[in-house]
Specification:
single chain, 375 residues, FAD/NAD(P)-binding domain, eight-stranded mixed beta sheet, five-stranded antiparallel beta sheet, globular
């Protein structure tokens, strides 16, 4: 066996899972199709660490968002991950939205999240924060390696076979890796990996989120995240600061079929800018300096699938982890550890996290990933 556990995918969820398993003493090998971790959905999101103030109580996604908040601070400190603790403001733009803001304040209380409803109907959420999602992912992946995990990049899973005591994963390059348990964190490709093992129980499709990047209008930094009143389908267009002083507006939410289409549509600007400028008027006359798109792995009729495969013994699916994957990654990893332990890989007590500084990126995280995706 190459490892007790193979983790397919080194995005933020796969990297968090690998670190959690390695800290509990498992022999872990991480298989990543791209040249480096974090070059897909994990590197093309907003970088916002959500509090869960607006998440429906009782859902698994909400449970893991809230659990992650309790796990995150020691990880941020040990890995010296950059974080902008700026808070967020949700301001109703019309009278009809005030009722929704009040309902969200009630929802926040139900989830144990601090949120203050102001007299003007606005909702303040001080715990919302911004990080660098690529640095976050790379930090987790590097920490997993320090705790003994092995990372193999350029390993695109093309076959899954039964092997003695587990599964054999075959790469399109001809490489072969065997493990007792395989954790499928392949993001957009999670349904394809599952089907290779005989599990066709779910489908993942790409939901494109496009973003516009601006220099700070007038040279004034944006001091907090600005949130719209959400709808049932989407959280809507946000306006938020980045760690390098830019202002970003987005995302859109466009359901598609092509998992390789990372392009920004020409109409994205007209869909984003009016909504963004309504929340932050200085953007009305601003010109974007860049744009990028992310493809979120949405599930067809499901959200947050984290369970043993019904069609392939030894496979654990971690799929349809949508836009909150960055926020919920640590809680997801903890949950996966409990499943892996039940499947026969006996895990020990969690080791102290080894401290280290995540290497600095040569440029903005959003540019790194967008340029790679466009190749």
């Amino acid at each position: 066996m190459d490892g007790e556990v193979a983790v397919v995918g080194a995005g933020v969820v796969g990297s968090a899972v690998a670190l959690a398993l390695a800290r509990r003493g498992a022999s872990v090998v991480v298989l990543e199709a791209e040249p480096q971790p974090g070059l897909a959905a994990s590197g093309t999101n907003s970088g916002i660490l959500h509090t869960g103030f607006d998440s429906p109580p009782g859902e698994l996604e909400t449970e893991l968002i809230l659990r992650s908040a309790g796990l995150r601070e020691p990880v941020l400190d040990a890995l010296r991950l950059p974080t902008l603790r700026c808070g967020a403001l949700l301001r109703p733009l019309e009278a009809s939205q005030r009722e929704m803001a009040a309902a969200l304040a009630h929802n926040a209380r139900a989830n144990g999240v601090t949120a203050t409803l102001r007299e003007d109907g606005s909702l303040e959420v001080p715990g919302e924060a911004v990080t660098d999602p690529v640095a976050f992912t790379l930090g987790l992946a590097a920490a997993a390696e320090r705790h003994g995990a092995s990372l193999r990049t350029g390993f695109r899973v093309a076959g899954v076979e039964r092997a003695e005591g587990g599964l054999a994963l075959l790469a399109d390059s001809g490489e072969r890796v065997t493990a007792r348990v395989t954790v499928n964190c392949a993001g957009l490709g999670a349904d394809e990996v599952a089907r290779l093992g005989g599990d066709d129980s779910f489908e993942v499709y790409p939901r494109k989120g496009e973003f516009l990047v601006f220099g700070p209008p007038g040279g004034e930094p944006l001091e907090r995240i600005l949130l719209p009143v959400p709808t049932k389908r989407t959280k809507g267009v946000l306006v938020f600061p980045t760690l390098d002083g830019k202002v970003v507006a987005g995302p859109t939410a466009v359901d598609g079929h092509d998992k390789s289409d990372w392009s920004v549509r020409p109409e994205a600007r007209s869909e984003i800018l009016p909504q963004a400028a309504a929340m932050y008027p200085p953007l009305e006359s601003a010109e974007p300096v860049a744009a990028y798109a992310g493809l979120r792995p949405a599930g067809r009729g499901l959200n947050y699938l984290i369970a043993p495969s019904p069609g392939c013994d030894g496979l654990v699916n971690v799929a349809a982890i949508r836009s909150t994957g960055l926020t919920a990654s640590l809680g997801i990893a903890e949950r996966v550890c409990s499943i892996v332990d039940r499947l026969g890989v006996r895990l020990g007590r969690e080791e102290r996290l080894l401290e280290a500084e995540t290497p600095a990126l040569p440029g903005p995280w959003w540019r790194r990933t967008a340029e790679h995706a466009a190749k």
